[in-house]
Amino acid sequence: MAKFRVNILGCGSATPSARHQPSCQVIDFRDKLFMIDCGEGAQTSFRKMGLKFNRLSHIFISHLHGDHVFGLPGLLSTMGLHQTGGAVTIHVFKEGAKILKQVTDYFCRQSPFEIIYDELTPGERRVIYEDNGITVRTFPLYHRIDCTGFVFEEKPKPRHLIGDMVKFHNIPVARLNDIKNGADFVTENGVVIPNAALTTAPDPQMSYAYCSDTMPNAKIAEDISGVNTVYHEATYDHSLAALARERGHSTSVQAAETARDAGAKQLIIGHFSKRYVEGELLLLDQAKEIFPNTVLANEGLRMDLL
């Protein structure tokens, strides 16, 4: 199966702590790297996890709180010392593009690669990236300031050829790609061999939803309906639901309810408050009561989507 891996570089909230770095993740899709948020220490965690700067060409910023963006100038500066060309696209709200451009124009003025800004619009739902294997789309989140989530969706995979049937019907190599994409085969005598006789079903499509800082809202589950894996902030345990709402965040129970309502297969919770100095097992236990297939984010965690 083709690689679709989530790498957790930081899963704390607000500020770095003895336990966690601020928010940052990297999606490894078939050796293309996509970074989501870039808190302090991101480039150090990037190196520790053995990721390669020259494979990172898109960075997605969910919102303009420091714990999600303060690591970006340093990362771009370091990349400028290692890369010899190409481009990096930063997907960010217009205000963030303006601020970051001022910083990078000063500190990265001799960068050997181009920095491109794709300006996001608050509240929008649109595809902001697409290649031959994956799409990335946005959906609104509900925080104290404008915030967006991201869904990474693998495109449909080709069907699997049945080798013996291909040989039996003497199918030319030039036709195999069309058949893997669902076409029937017509013999020289005009006989139609249906695709179902030549192939088996493709591997399932994988998808990943990133729900950054947000209060619970039923629209989120609608926007990410059917995804395989959800990452959802769970800043507080559910006894602090009132505080979570006041600060525009979710509890572990609310994160689990969103994953359940979206029909997801697994849930990763993160963005933990630094108050949990002994660990986040309380949050995990609360989430599992609602959504059993829940795991805790942690720096260095790698998860292959299945």
Taking the sheet with the most strands, its summary is: 7 strands, mixed
The helix count comes to 9
**Overall pLDDT score:** 94
Strands, total number: 18
What percent of the residues sit in helical stretches (DSSP H or I)?
A: 25-40%
Distance between the termini: 9 Å
Helix-strand category: alpha/beta
Shape: globular
Could you describe the 3D structure shown?
It contains 9 helices and 18 strands. Helices cover 26% and strands 28% of the residues. The chain is α/β, with parallel strands linked by helices and 306 residues long. The chain is globular, with a radius of gyration of 22 Å. The strands form 4 sheets. Strands 6-5-4-3-2-1-18 form a 7-stranded mixed β-sheet. β14 (207-211), α6 (218-223) and β15 form a beta-alpha-beta unit. The protein has helices at 42-48, 72-82, 94-107, 163-168, 173-180, 218-223, 241-246, 252-262, 281-290, and strands spanning 4-10, 24-29, 32-38, 56-60, 87-93, 114-120, 127-130, 134-140, 148-154, 160-161, 185-186, 192-193, 199-200, 207-211, 229-233, 266-270, 294-296, 302-304.
